[in-house]
Inverse folding.
């Protein structure tokens, strides 16, 4: 068995070697060749029903392939009256509030791909309601703006899509190379002035896309800034920390690298 990724979770896939009834093998055979194979199987004592079952299983598997790459068809601009109507429908609901909001998306005219993506994001983020409101393809990896209308502070977030894994939250601080940042002379000097300073999720505007550039060996890098704040969301800002998100040529995530800091007066 091999492994593929579906929404950040490894999924077992059949070994791609030769076997009786292989879907790939069936696809390459002509009708005459299939007839000869069936006759040969009968002569060897291979049950004919096993071959029929194998062929039907192949058709079923091919009709249930994993969904393709996420694209711009999942973008939906939230109507102005959506939150009002959704609150009216979901405030009295005894079910999960975010799930109720997803149901309201379809009723409000959201494209099927947008509803499917929001449902997948709900599972990936452990219950958060978010809508894709922007999409930009960068080759093996794409960017997506996500609007989180139920959040109290930051209503926009960034995701990296279609790589390996297929959904990466740019605001997941655990993925940042903060060890190198904290060991840098820049950060140590800053901490003398701001004792509780640390990196925080970005306060995005949902409009300005991060920069991208070619990486080593045909890969790609995305440069993303994060605020440095002295202890709490409303506390003093002490500048920005810059990190590169690194992917190889096939879109596999290779980790992040700390690039430096920007003084708040230079922003």
């Amino acid at each position: 068995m091999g492994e593929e990724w579906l929404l950040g979770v490894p999924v077992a896939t059949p070994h791609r070697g030769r076997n009786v009834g292989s879907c790939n093998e069936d696809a390459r055979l002509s009708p005459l060749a299939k007839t000869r194979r069936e006759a040969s199987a009968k002569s060897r004592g291979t049950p004919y029903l096993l071959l029929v079952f194998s062929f039907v299983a192949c058709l079923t598997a091919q009709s249930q392939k994993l969904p393709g790459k996420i694209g711009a068809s999942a973008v939906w601009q939230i109507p102005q009256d959506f939150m009002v109507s959704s609150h009216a429908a979901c405030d009295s609901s005894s079910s999960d509030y975010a799930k109720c909001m997803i149901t309201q998306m379809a009723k409000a005219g959201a494209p099927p791909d947008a509803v499917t993506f929001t449902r997948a994001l709900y599972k990936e983020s452990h219950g958060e309601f978010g809508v894709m409101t922007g999409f930009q393809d960068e080759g093996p990896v794409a960017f997506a703006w996500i609007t989180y209308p139920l959040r109290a502070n930051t209503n926009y977030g960034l995701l990296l899509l279609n790589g390996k894994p297929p959904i990466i939250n740019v605001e997941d601080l655990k993925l940042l190379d903060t060890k190198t940042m904290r060991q840098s002379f820049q950060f140590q000097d800053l901490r003398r002035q701001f004792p509780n300073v640390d990196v925080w999720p970005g306060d995005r505007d949902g409009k300005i896309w991060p920069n991208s550039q070619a990486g080593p060996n045909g890969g790609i890098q995305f440069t993303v800034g994060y605020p440095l704040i002295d202890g709490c969301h409303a506390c003093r800002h002490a500048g920005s920390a810059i990190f590169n998100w690194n992917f190889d040529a096939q879109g596999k995530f290779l980790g992040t690298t700390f690039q430096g800091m920007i003084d708040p007066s230079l922003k």
